[in-house]
């Protein structure tokens, strides 16, 4: 009896493996990202490709994390949680506070410690107070700031406007009630975050201006700035998208057009209400005025559908007379910020975060 040969003939696949990099884009990606993505992400379901109830019940089964650096000095002085009232005091959200070991970086100001209010990413659907732990520690250790990480409630359980209102409530709670308990210099307050967190930071900066609350910096990393091209069903027609990056990167990896449609449906609802169009709380790029805003650091990624709207927002900030700085990370996907252990552009992002904050805080 002859044994069957184990030499298999090449087969033509009818479709590429799930979440693989499109061949037309592969050469443009950072090669280290390609290597890790193909080893750990291809063939796996992404978080938006399973029912939200299944993800909420088993999040660890669907989160693939690789390439994130551990903070150089992983220990900060103290980590604690405080409660922030929301919904006129009917409910509360958590804010995690990261404090430095000492006041070596206090620098210019009234003697108190500078402040950074952080909002995590995740499309207003995913992410929590643990998402940006290393990022928050790095800011504390690199600047001496006290970092407040706001755990806003997420869609679809809490759709728009809840994440925005929670972000604003968290910001107000920090600047109006926590200066004494944490020895804060409220003349040196910055906000920031990636993706949905960048969107929330932009909205908070708009509201802070309108409320007369000074900010020294808004850090907008791969931000969502414009949701007006999503229809009432949460769809975007690729060929009609107002930004070239949506047409070019609709089928990219880590954040595709399909994934953004998923976020739009969960965050804005179906059918989407007409009041969410031309609404600066949804699309800060459509604010009636962008004048007199805090200085901005806007960072985008080349291989991200959000690239061009981030750049467009930067251009509008500059045109309105604001101090704004822009960087695009070549070869990087939307998740560049959490690839800082394997990609040079991720390390560059870390350096930009710290250098811009030190400048804003008056720290040499």
Task: Give the spatial strand order of the biggest sheet.
Answer: 1-2-4-3-5-6-7-8
* Biggest pleated-sheet summary: 8 strands, mixed
Helix and strand pattern: HHHEEEHEHHEHEHHEHEH
Q: Output the radius of gyration.
A: 21 Å
- Determine the mean pLDDT: 92
**Number of beta-strand segments:** 8
Percent range of helical residues: 25-40%
Distance between the termini: 79 Å
Number of domains: 1
- CATH level 1 name: Alpha Beta
Helix/strand class = alpha/beta
Tally the helices: what do you get?
11
InterPro entries: AB_hydrolase_3, AB_hydrolase_fold, GDXG_lipolytic_enzyme
Protein name: Esterase
Pfam family, one: Abhydrolase_3
GO molecular function: hydrolase activity
Question: What does this protein look like?
Answer:
Residues 117-335 form the Alpha/beta hydrolase fold-3 domain. This protein is of the alpha/beta class. The protein has a single domain (78-361), classed as Rossmann fold. The protein has helices at residues 23-26, 31-40, 52-57, 133-143, 162-177, 179-182, 196-211, 244-249, 257-268, 307-319, 344-361; strands at 78-86, 91-99, 113-119, 146-150, 184-194, 217-221, 296-301, 324-329. A hairpin with a 4-residue loop joins strand 1 and strand 2 (91-99). The radius of gyration is 21 Å and the shape is globular. The mean pLDDT is 92.
């Amino acid at each position: 009896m002859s044994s069957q040969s184990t030499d298999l003939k090449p087969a033509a696949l009818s479709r590429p493996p799930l979440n693989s990099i499109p061949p037309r884009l592969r050469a443009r990606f950072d090669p280290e990202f390609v290597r890790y993505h193909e080893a750990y992400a291809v063939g796996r379901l992404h978080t938006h490709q399973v029912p939200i109830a299944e993800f909420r019940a088993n999040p660890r089964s669907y989160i693939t994390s690789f390439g994130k650096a551990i903070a150089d000095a992983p220990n900060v002085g103290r980590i604690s949680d405080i409660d922030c009232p929301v919904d006129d005091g009917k409910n509360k959200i958590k804010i995690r506070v990261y404090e430095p070991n000492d006041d070596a970086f206090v620098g210019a100001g009234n003697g108190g410690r500078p402040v950074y209010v952080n909002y995590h990413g995740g499309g207003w659907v995913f992410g929590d107070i643990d998402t940006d732990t290393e990022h928050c520690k790095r800011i504390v250790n690199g600047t001496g700031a006290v970092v407040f990480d706001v755990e806003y409630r997420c869609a679809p359980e809490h759709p728009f406007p809840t994440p925005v209102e929670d972000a604003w409530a968290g910001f107000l709670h920090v600047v109006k009630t926590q200066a004494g308990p944490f020895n804060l210099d409220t003349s040196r307050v910055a906000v920031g975050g990636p993706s949905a967190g960048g969107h929330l930071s932009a909205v908070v900066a708009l509201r802070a201006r309108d409320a007369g609350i000074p900010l020294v910096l808004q850090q907008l990393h791969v931000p969502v700035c414009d949701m007006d091209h999503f229809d009432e069903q949460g769809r975007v027609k690729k060929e009609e998208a107002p930004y070239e990056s949506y047409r070019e990167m609709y089928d990219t990896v880590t954040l595709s057009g399909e994934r953004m449609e998923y976020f739009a449906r969960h965050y804005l609802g179906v059918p989407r209400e007409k009041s969410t169009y031309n609404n600066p709380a949804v699309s800060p790029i459509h604010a009636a005025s962008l004048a007199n805003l805090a200085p901005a650091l806007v960072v985008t990624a080349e291989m991200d559908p959000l690239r061009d709207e981030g750049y467009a927002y930067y251009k509008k900030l500059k045109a309105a007379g604001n101090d704004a700085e822009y960087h695009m990370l070549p070869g990087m996907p939307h998740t560049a910020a959490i690839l800082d252990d394997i990609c040079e552009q991720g390390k560059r992002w870390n350096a930009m975060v710290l250098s811009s904050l030190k400048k804003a805080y008056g720290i040499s």
